[in-house]
Structures are given as C-alpha cells and as structure tokens.
Design goal:
The structure is a single chain. This protein is of the alpha/beta class and 636 residues long. Helices cover 54% and strands 11% of the residues. The strands form four sheets. It has a six-stranded mixed β-sheet, with helices on both faces. The chain has a four-stranded antiparallel β-sheet with strand order 6-5-8-9, covered by helices on one side. It has a two-stranded antiparallel sheet with strand order 1-4. The radius of gyration is 29 Å and the shape is elongated. The termini are far apart. The relative contact order is 0.11. The N terminus and C terminus are likely disordered.
Length: 636
C-alpha cells in the first residue's frame, strides 16, 4: 500500500543514506504500532483509538472532497447513523422482539452493523441523488442543512433516548473474546482503518479510480470518455457515508454509550478540517490530519487553563487560529510537505511499478472490448438542419453536414462563427434547439455525451482538459474507460489486475503511436501545451473510436510536430476513421482535409474540396476579409 495516493517528486538521495520504498515504510509503521500497542499507557491507547475512528471518517472525506471535489459538512450525522443503529438493536426490547431470539446476544452488535450500513446506504443514496445535483456553494450548504436535521432527529426521537441517549451498549465479542477495553477494541479499529486505506488505494489505482479523479473539475471531459459522472458522484458519496457509519459503529462499542452530542455540526466541521489539513488529495493525509487535530485539542485542553484560567473556552479560539495558520502555510495539507521532506530517504517507485505492471502480460490475458471499424465511405455522423438559439441570439442556423468513414472533414470560420457551439451539439455536450444529429444511423436527441462515446465518438477539447497531476499514461487510459467492465468492489479487492494491465498496455500503445513514448510516466501538467493536445488525441484513440472530433489539434504545435500530427491523422484516415477537425491553421487544413465546411455567423457559406473552398469568392471575402487573399494562396 502506498502512503500517498498521488505521486511525489523524488530528490536525489544523499550518499550513504539507506533507501526504503513507501510500501516498506508503511509496513514498518504497522509493525511498530503492533509491537508497541501492548506497552502503551491506557490514555495513549484511548487517544490512538480515537485517532483511528476520526481517520476512518476523514479518509472518506479525502475521497469525497479531495479526490471527487464534493464538500460535505454532514459526515458526523452518518457517524451517528452507525452508532445509533447498533446501540438501538443491542439495547431495545422492541428490537429484541423483532428478532425473536433468532440472534444471540454476542451477535447483536454485528446485526447492528448490518442495520447501520443498510440505513446509511439508503439514506446516503437518497440524499446524494438530491444534494449532488447542486453546484458551487449550494452543495456544502445543503450538507449543513441535512446534517443539522439528522442531529436534531437523533435528539428528539424518544426510542433513541432523546438528548439523554442510549446506555448499556455491549462490547464486541469476536471468537468468544470480549473487546470491552480500548486496548482490545483499538486493535480492531486500526485494522479496519488500514484495510479501508488499502481498499481505497486500490480503488484509486484502477479504471474506476481514474473516473473518480476526473469528477473534480473535469465532469465534461469525463462524460465525453463515457463516464456516468452523476452515478459516480453518488457512489462516492455513499462510500464516504458507509465509512463514517463503520466508524460510528466502532465508536458506540468503544464508549458503550451514545447520545447526540458527538454528531453535531461542529464535529462535522472538525472532520472536514482533518481531511483538508492532512492533505485532501492523499489517503494517508487523513491519518495525519486526524492525529494532529486530536492531539492538538487534547494538549490545548491541558495547557490553556493553566495559562489563562479555567473561565472561558480559550481552546476553541486558539485552535481556530492554529488551523488558520496551518491552512495558510500548508495550502495542500501537511502530507505533501512531509512527503517532500521524506523523499531524501524514501524511494518512490510508484511510477516504475505502474510501468512494469502495464508492460507485463497477465497470467490470463484480458481482451478489451473491440469495435469493428465501418467500411470506407459509410456515413458515420450526420447533422440535419441543426440550429441553436440562446434567447434571441442564433448561434447556429440550420447547419447540415456529414462525416464519412475514411475521410477528414474540416470545419473552419472566423472567431464567433459558431464552430464551438456546433461542435458541442454533435458531441452531446449541448442539445440542438432544432434539427437532428445522427451517429451511426441513430438519432442522438437528448442523449448525453457518454452515449456518443459508447457509439464510437472520441473527441478532444479547445481548452485542454487533462488530469494535470496524473501521469500521461493514466490520462490516456481514461479514454479506454468503456472498453473494460470491472467495477468498484473488484478494484478494491485487486481482482481487476489483469484488466488493468490490459488498459495500461493499450494506453502505452497509443502514446507510442502519437510520439510521446518518452513522456508516458510524466505528469501531464509538466508537458508543453502542444504535447498536452497530443495527449488528448492519444486519450481519444484509446477508446477505439470510429468518429474522431478534434478541436484545434494543431494549436501550440511547432512545425515538425504539425507534420507528425498530419502523418498520424492521415494514417487514421487510411484505417477507416472519420475525422472532423476544427482548426484555424489554414495551411494545416488545406493540406490535410478531404472536404471543408465554412461557417460565418452560424451559417454555412461554403462546402467542398480545399480547391473549391479556396476559389470561393464568398469565403475569400467573409473569412479573410478580401485583403488577405494571399494567405489562402500560400496554403495551396
């Protein structure tokens, strides 16, 4: 298990210093904790147990907020769901009557766990289906609203003990051994935490993990790769809620008492602090954040009364100021800083391991889904009288065009001609106001862009959309999302390794094909703009499309890079792909395209071969203003 879910830059190690890998360092930490556990003071064991409980919830928030880009202040309410479910089923006469003696007392806590997970799953799915449709500040405000509602619900239900709560919660019993003390139950808490971190690390290192990473700031791109972003957001929300419920279940059997106070909004804010302070994009940052805030609160409660007197709640004020300092000084959290400091002694082999895994054939080779390319000349994409209006503004007016297999069709026009609007409509980003778009003979009215991807449409973007901190090979592998089928559970348990190796091998093949083989394991953000555009093309090709839409692919490329791109597109045309190119580089377009459609003010003013378009006086006048006719001559 890697200590971080994100790659960290590695400095040259000092001579004579021993090197360890993150996996080895993790094993050392686990073994040291296990060996020391029996000798630690009771108070230290209790604090460590609480850190483990908090870290379990914070890890879910790392996935939800740091990776998925969704902020929630209401996770404490889900902790309460898990705690109250097991407390009620273990102590309520009503629950005992329902069970009818079918469950022995020793198994009641496990029935409580099952009940808590079921209720949490149902509630989180229902809340997520409503809440996650909101954008911007409305989403966190909504989580505050339902978090407060659940908190007050706990305190006002008489069968849950009201504000007094539920006492007499029995301890966990495993194989006849009672886990009634923090020292005994703490082992279970940390075992559950470590297993959860392992499972989530596996999830992030998978096909589904790449889809999850694309949710944060890249939903349009993810949908175009075939990812059902709405469903993935809900699943991620439910995952974080279930981790919180498990933490609540363990908390109830650790404290042996449950009341509403630990599940209020203040605790929800603290849990979010733990994820952010530790490093919202890093799984082990949840442990660091939970440890820092828990220990800091304990220390302040001891030190401040001695310094400032017992009157006043000074620890809250000082705690807030310290959190402000940490967030100001460590904007990305503490884990990235710790990783940079440790990089002098820790050898990060994450990228090497990924490369080796993708190059190694699995024991049972997996064949990714294959698409048979259509015969040359077959009609792939058709737009019939497509119009788009924004109020009284007509962006596109009755545009008709076709794209056939084995041809390159260019769409050109001056700025403001409506090219981007039309491009979005034929790729499923926007719906036409009127007219019909057909892909492979099917009407695509009201269908999302992932449906276009499923039918064989791949695309790039005018403004590059990549996962900047992830490697080039991971970005390209996202394009093959629909060519594999393994889901979340298989990824968590590492049952998808053969399929994952096939995906990574396909991604590397497309990267080599596009001439970026030397940069396969480089973070995408470190490449030049032109190279990033080529990465987008490789990502689109990984999906094995029959239709390829390229939005200004030559922008930012140098002369030799444009020539290489032209050669690649010519090869793709020969293989039977239909390629639509939106481009401003006239020389690139005229030397490459089979047909050209020219737009002006949202209307088609010319369609034909490059020679016909260059000779069209209306194009010369409207597109180049007449005075710049020599530019078209130069492109001949």
């Amino acid at each position: 298990m890697s200590p971080s879910s994100n790659p960290v830059a590695v400095n040259a190690p000092p001579a004579g210093k021993p090197l360890v890998t993150p996996r080895q360092l993790t094993l050392v930490f686990v073994v040291a904790l296990a060996l020391a556990w029996g000798f630690l003071p009771e108070f230290t064991v209790s604090v460590l147990s609480n850190i483990g409980l908090y870290a379990l919830v914070a890890a879910g928030l790392v996935m939800l907020t740091g990776v998925g880009g969704m902020t929630s202040f209401g996770q404490a309410a889900f902790v309460g769901m898990g705690a109250y479910a097991t407390a009620w089923i273990c102590t309520s006469p009503t629950a005992a009557a329902w069970l009818g003696g079918a469950v022995s007392p020793a198994l009641l806590p496990w029935a409580g766990l099952a009940l808590g997970l079921v209720f949490t799953f149902a509630l989180a799915w229902a809340l997520g289906a409503v809440t996650l449709k909101l954008q911007g500040h409305y989403l966190p405000l909504c989580t505050i609203a339902w978090g407060l509602s659940l908190y007050y619900l706990f305190g006002n239900m008489e069968f849950l003990g009201g504000q007094t709560g539920i006492t007499g919660v029995p301890p966990l019993v495993v194989a006849g051994v009672s886990l009634a003390t923090p020292r005994a139950l703490g082992v279970v808490i940390w075992a559950v935490l470590l297993l959860a971190l392992w499972a989530m690390h596996n999830l992030l290192d998978s096909r589904e993990g790449r889809a999850i990473r694309a949710l944060k700031g890249g939903r349009l791109m993810a949908e175009s790769m075939g990812v059902d972003t709405a469903r993935h957001r809900i699943k991620l929300f439910v995952l974080a809620a279930l981790l919180a419920a498990v933490s609540g279940w363990l908390y109830a059997h650790l404290q042996r008492f449950v009341n509403p106070t630990p599940f209020n909004l203040n605790i929800g804010i603290e849990l979010l602090f733990m994820a952010v302070v530790g490093g919202a994009g890093h799984l082990w940052g949840a442990v660091v954040g939970a440890a820092l805030i828990t220990l800091l609160k304990e220390k302040l409660q001891d030190v401040l009364p001695a310094l400032l007197g017992t009157s006043g709640n000074f620890e809250v004020i000082v705690f807030g100021l310290l959190m402000l300092f940490v967030l100001q000084r460590f904007a990305d959290g503490l884990w990235p800083t710790l990783s940079r400091l440790a990089s002098r002694w820790v050898r990060n082999d994450a990228r090497k391991e990924t490369a080796a895994a993708s190059k190694t054939a699995p024991a049972q080779p997996v064949q990714l889904a294959q698409r048979t390319l259509p015969a040359s000349g077959e009609l792939l994409l058709e737009a019939s009288d497509v119009s788009k209006r924004f109020g009284g503004l007509v962006a596109n007016n009755a545009i008709s065009m076709t794209l056939k297999a084995g041809e390159i069709h260019a769409l050109i026009g001056p700025n403001g001609a409506g090219k981007s609007t039309f491009f979005n409509m034929i790729s499923g980003v926007d719906d036409p106001t009127s007219g019909v778009v057909r892909l492979s003979g099917q009407s695509m009215a009201t269908k999302p862009s992932r449906a276009f991807a499923a039918l064989g449409l791949g695309r790039t973007f005018q403004h590059v959309r990549l996962l900047g901190q992830r490697s080039v090979v991971e970005n390209v592998a996202l394009g093959a999302h629909l060519r594999a089928r393994r889901g979340w559970l298989a990824a968590m348990l590492r049952l998808d390794r053969a399929e994952e190796a096939a995906l990574m091998a396909e991604a590397r093949r497309q990267i080599e094909r596009c001439g970026l083989g030397a940069h396969a394991d480089t973070p995408a953000a470190s490449l030049s703009l032109g190279q990033q555009r080529v990465v987008e093309i490789a990502r689109a090709l990984a999906g094995q499309p029959s239709v390829l839409l390229l939005d200004e692919p030559a922008a930012g490329l140098r002369h030799l890079e444009k020539r290489a791109l032209s050669v690649l597109l010519s090869q793709l045309r020969a293989e039977g792909l239909g390629i639509l190119v939106v481009e401003h580089d006239m020389e690139f377009v005229m030397n490459l395209a089979d047909r050209i459609t020219v737009l002006e003010f949202g209307t088609v003013i010319a369609t034909g071969t490059p020679a016909e378009v260059q000779a069209n006086p209306r194009v010369l006048e409207a597109y180049l203003g007449g005075a710049d006719d020599e530019l078209l001559e130069d492109a001949r």
